[in-house]
Amino acid sequence: MVATGVATSLTLALALAACAPADDEGTGESGGTPEAGDITLWLAGADTNDDLRKYLVDTFAEENPGSTLTIEEQDWTDLVTKLTTALPDAANTPDVVEIGNTQAPTFTYAGAFREISPELYDELGGDKLLQSFVDAGSIDETKYALPYYYGSRYMFYRKDIWQKAGLEVPKTLEEFGDSVKELTSKKQSGFAMGGQDWRNGISWVFANDGELAVKDGDQWTSTLSDPNTVKGLEQWQDVFENASNLPATAKDEAYWDFINDGTDGGAPEGATIMAPGWARWSIGDLTKGDDGKEVRDGMADDKKFDIFALPGVDGGVAPVFAGGSNVAVSAKSQHPELAENLLRIIYSDEYQTMLAKAGLGPANTDFNKLMTVDADGNPDKFGEVAVATAEASKLTPAAPGWAAVEGASVYEELFQKIAEGGDVTALAKQYDEKLTPMLNGQAG
Amino acid sequence: MTAATETGTGVAAPAAAPAVRDAAAVARRPRPRVGKILLGALGVVLSLVWAFPVYWMLLSAVTPDARLRADTPSFLPTHFTLANFGSVLTGSGFGGALRMSLMVTLVTIVLVLAFAFLAALAISRWRFRGRTSFVLAVLFIQMLPAEGLFIAQYKMLSTVGASAPVLGLNSVLGISVLYTAMLVPFTIWMLRGFVAGIPAELEEAAMVDGLSRTKAFLRITFPLLAPGLVASGVYAFLQAWNEFTTALVILPAESRQTLPIWLRSFLSASANRGIDWGEVMAASTLIAVPVIVFFLFVQGRMTSGLVAGAVKG
Amino acid sequence: MTIATPASTIAIRRRRQPATPYLLLLPAVLILLVGLGYPVYWQVVTSLQEYGMMQQFGAPPTFAGLDNYARIFSDERLLPVVTRSLIFCLVNAFLTVAIGLGLALLMKAVHGAVRITMQVVLLLAWATPLVAAVTVFRWLFDYRAGVVNWLLVQIGLDQYQGYAWLAQPLTFFVVATLVIVWMSVPFVAMSLYAGLTQVSEEVLEAARLDGASPAQILRHILLPLVRPVLAIVLLLQIIWDLRVFAQIRLLQDAGAPISETNLLGNFIYELGIGSQDFSGAAAVSIFVLLLTVLLAAPYVRSLMKEDAA
């Protein structure tokens, strides 16, 4: 039945595909309300909490009578795999997808996303949207993927341990390095950080005015060998070697565990960590949650736990890597109007407010100020530091081959080798040669 | 090598009359017994070593996470709790994934056994043109790396699914067909030995006694093959139950994921919050239990199946 | 094996209508064509094209001839991956079969209760699903709270305090080998044990009484008898261990030097999905297929000869 089955169904599929646009035209010409349908939104990871999801689903159903929104959660680990197979497939593509900001350029260049018209772009917030993220999803002036949320990283530290050692919140990057080195013992990392963790490590590069790669014309060049970059990498190497007891291969560790007290009140394994803002809810003393399970109290004891922004080389705030994601409509979506309606909900004032309240950096920078006050309108130190670091934050290069670079874990490898004490200048040269063709998408 | 220690001093006098033999055997008994006890001890020690990972999984699953991070691990369930299972089972889609895994595995076993059995019958009972090429092809297909195939598999199922959703993406049948194609080659190899081991004369004798060909096959040959089918079925079961790369791509809908995918996403979600090893071990236990139950269920037949298969090679 | 031969030569039904065997093969051939036909065809074609992310999203692929193969062979990553995979495969296959044989002989030698214990334990290991098994080993070897490090420190090896097993390629592969051997030995041990049970006690007793040493019994009676099974399980282990993918990937998830621990399967995956170099991945796949066929050829030939006898 099947040897010919493939061929037959191919023809069938073509025939079906030929019929499909008829539906679209119908909806397009009727103007105003698009034809009812069911659309799918893929969210990556669990950062979008249940309240936010419920709001999207309910509001969408309300504003688009007869249509429904289904949200499916995808793993960050396998997101690229699933997007690569599903997005080109008109029959099964999700209509709207969340995608890591560093993955966005590759898919944008490949033509995976539907263009966002200048009118729609303006309607959704235009220039108020976080521009570094907008750039990650644009080709020249044409927009494809827009910011969804950002999360910048700052330092969480054990105030009690720092104070006991007579140390103050550092003013410069160098001072930070010296302090965490002083706090390091065999049993305690002054700064608990994994060697492969380049997303934290590149802050030292950015702080020294270094770049990972620059674009000249339409060619990207890896610039690890740039003196500023090398200086940053060497500074990071020094901090890792002398202040962190973690393996050179560690990455994406649950760093917050390191500054929490050990089991039965034992000393913590680290004095300082660098993490995204939501790490707060995994830090603190144990208390019983509503469901009776033991949870952390979110750093309630401010004599014990506190935060600061990573200081710059000459003071101020160091530019840190901004994590986060973009959102885009699939080019193959069968319901592009409905998908755009979903974008309108995402960029609505209500939803942006909800994002900010949930501790996720809102796409629309107007809502940043919401993060700096708590529910009662009092200043919120977490929000303040988050916004301060976000303003100084930087993204990775929006090169077409960036997802390939991440997919092949090239920076993980480089940072591991640096963490193991390798010669930074030689490694930089070696990896520049490897990275430049990859960044331009020439490996694929 | 281990057997070598068994009768260490076995170089005995040349055999004489049976009576002398018996006497000699009786006389030597005590020594082998010591050897046997030592071997038995070795067997127990090795069993403990082999069982340890499973024991540790079960133990961690019933221990609160905070305990697991203690400086001194405890080797007994001193802080027994079922809370880990509770938090794994609530709202995590385990039930759906279990159902999906069971369906996919079942359909795959049935398809694999049916198709492989017929092919094994053909190559062990007949010599025909193309037989050798077929056997070789079957062997070589196993050597193809599957990691490059799934984009094409996705395209294929998506295209087929456009006209026949029952065979398309997210369908039990669709992924079962892919699994069957991957598993049929080895199963043919396995079953070939069993089929060859059943003399066709038995069937023919039954036919002489007046049974039809089909009846002779069903009553005589088939029961003899049962252990072989069980052993092959176990193989297919394990493979289909364990597979995750293809399932990841072919079953994109969250509601259609199989257990390995479920465990993997559970693990990575847990990693984002700082791995809760207690919960992760509870989740691992949950996906292992159906297999262990299945194995205990078919164990007797499987061992005899391996015996029969082993002789034929 | 030869025992079956006289019967089957008589049984072969040359005179019956030759269509029957072909009809019997039809379902298997069809399922292979359906399940693998198009994917394999796609892989061959893609290996001859320039096929990257653009093409995946609809740009027409261009014919590239053997460019991809040339590119792959000049890729400095390929040779280390191939060497590593071959060594890993052979070490694991021989280790698995050797331990499996040892356990099978032990099971044959020990008393009923111990034997049943061993069988149940092996069954447990065999039944543990792959993802669960790798997860458990990750936990056993966890650098902070893993029980292996704890035990090593207890016996006085202080350097294992917080030792990261997955951080160095060598120790990474030690853990990977432990997982794979742990999971694969049961199948080998049970199959070989099943073969060993075919030797009747009388034969062994007679051999002993005739003055055969245990080593002689092993070499002249037991091993020849399980040789065919041994040959097959070894071939299967080699084929399977060369294709190891999931175990490595799941271990790498825990943080490891990725490019130094990639085996062929992981390399193909990383090239294809990771770097969107689908044509390169396809070319490596075809190369791996040819390599395996080449490796297995002498072995297969001897198996076929036995089969034809």
Q: What would your notes on this structure say?
A:
The complex is a heterotrimer of chains A (444), B (313) and C (309). In chain A, 41% of the residues lie in helices and 16% in strands. In chain A, the strands form four sheets. In chain A, strands 1, 2, 3, 6, 9, 12, 13 and 14 form an eight-stranded mixed beta sheet that branches. A two-stranded antiparallel ribbon of chain A has the order 4-5. Chain A has a two-stranded antiparallel ribbon with strand order 7-8. Chain A has 444 residues and is an alpha+beta fold. Chain A has 18 helices and 14 strands. Chain A has two domains: 37-151 and 323-391, 3-Layer(aba) Sandwich (D-Maltodextrin-Binding Protein, domain 2); 153-321 and 398-439, Periplasmic binding protein-like II (D-Maltodextrin-Binding Protein, domain 2, 3-Layer(aba) Sandwich). In chain B, helix 6 (131-141) crosses helix 8 (172-197), helix 9 runs antiparallel to helix 10 and helix 12 (259-272) runs antiparallel to helix 13. Chain B is globular, with a radius of gyration of 26 Å. Chain B folds into two domains: 3-61, no CATH class; 88-312, MetI-like fold. The longest helix of chain B is centred in the last third of the chain and has 36 residues, at 277-312. With 309 residues, chain C is an all-alpha fold. Chain C has a domain at 92-263: MetI-like (MetI-like fold, Orthogonal Bundle). Chain C has 15 helices and two strands. Chain C has helices spanning 5-11, 19-47, 53-56, 67-73, 78-109, 112-127, 130-140, 147-154, 169-196, 201-209, 214-242, 246-252, 258-261, 264-274, 278-308, and strands spanning 49-50, 62-63. Chain C has a two-stranded antiparallel sheet. The radius of gyration of chain C is 24 Å and the shape is globular. The N and C termini of chain C lie close together (9 Å). The interface between B and C is large, with 123 and 125 residues.
List keywords for this structure.
heterotrimer, A: 444 residues, alpha+beta, D-Maltodextrin-Binding Protein, domain 2, 8-stranded mixed sheet, two-stranded antiparallel ribbon, 14 strands, 16% strand, globular, disordered N terminus, B: 313 residues, mainly alpha, MetI-like fold, 74% helix
What does the secondary structure layout of this molecule look like, with pairings?
The complex is a heterotrimer of chains A (444), B (313) and C (309).
Chain A: H1 5-30, E1 38-44, H2 50-63, E2 68-74, H3 79-86, E3 96-100, H4 104-110, H5 118-123, H6 131-136, E4 138-139, E5 142-143, E6 145-158, H7 159-164, H8 173-182, H9 198-207, E7 213-216, E8 219-222, H10 227-243, H11 256-259, E9 272-276, E10 286-288, E11 294-296, E12 305-308, E13 322-329, H12 336-346, H13 349-357, E14 361-362, H14 368-371, H15 381-391, H16 402-407, H17 410-419, H18 424-439
Parallel strand pairs in A: 1-2, 1-3
Antiparallel strand pairs in A: 3-13, 4-5, 6-9, 6-12, 6-13, 6-14, 7-8, 10-11
Chain B: H1 18-28, H2 30-61, H3 65-68, H4 83-89, H5 94-125, H6 131-141, H7 150-163, H8 172-197, H9 200-208, H10 213-242, H11 245-250, H12 259-272, H13 277-312
Helix pairs in contact in B: 2-13, 4-13, 5-8, 5-10, 6-8, 8-10, 8-13, 9-10, 10-13, 12-13
Chain C: H1 5-11, H2 19-47, E1 49-50, H3 53-56, E2 62-63, H4 67-73, H5 78-109, H6 112-127, H7 130-140, H8 147-154, H9 169-196, H10 201-209, H11 214-242, H12 246-252, H13 258-261, H14 264-274, H15 278-308
Antiparallel strand pairs in C: 1-2
